Amino acid sequence: MSRIRFPMLLALVGSFALLAVGIACSSNDDKGGKIQITITDTGITVSPNSVVKGPIEFDVKNDGKEKHNLLIIKTNLPADKLPTNADGSVNEGGADVDVQKKIDDVDGGDDTSRTYSLDPGSYVLISNDVTDSNGTKVADYTTGLHATLTVTESESASASAAASSSATATKAASGSATPTASR
Predict the structure, then answer these.
(1) Separation in Å, CA 127 to CA 41, 71, 124, 146, 155
(2) Is-above-0.70 flag for pTM?
């Protein structure tokens, strides 16, 4: 009877050892995630608006009629308080504006996907295109095409950030941007 128990015990210990090695080898370093970004001609929504650092897949869909680009800016400024140029576009070299990534123009109705690794911190996602409307320059940023994203160090911090910040889209209302809650 003890001859049968020893091999079973050995197999059980070996299984636990393999499980422990598997757990130890899986780290939070490559967590990342997937973010859905929807751009319209009047706003940007981000879902979820908080993700753990690591490879982050940005799925961008332009549901608007106009083409829009997307800049990922690391900043501590509120989304609607970035420094602007005379034409209303964001000053990409301005104070506390660190453009991390840029996705070139996405035509209306099209979509694209990119994967980037971002450091933990606060980000603002904007369209910074400027169009001419009957001789008047119109900047996407000043019409409300901006949203926030938080990249966290860990999952618990990401859940906390998502719970405390549900304003992921902004829209222009009488020339001033107002947060719009979404999930």
Answers:
(1) 10, 6, 10, 7, 28
(2) yes
Average pLDDT over residues 65-71: 96
Q: How confident is the model at residue 167 (pLDDT cuts 50, 70, 90)?
A: very low
Backbone conformation region of residue 34, classed left if phi is above 0, alpha if psi is from -120 to 50, else beta: beta
2 is written with which tokens? Answer: 């003890």
For residue 12 the two structure tokens come to 């059980």
Residues pairing with 139 in the sheet:
130
Phi and psi at 146, nearest 5°, equal: -155, 150
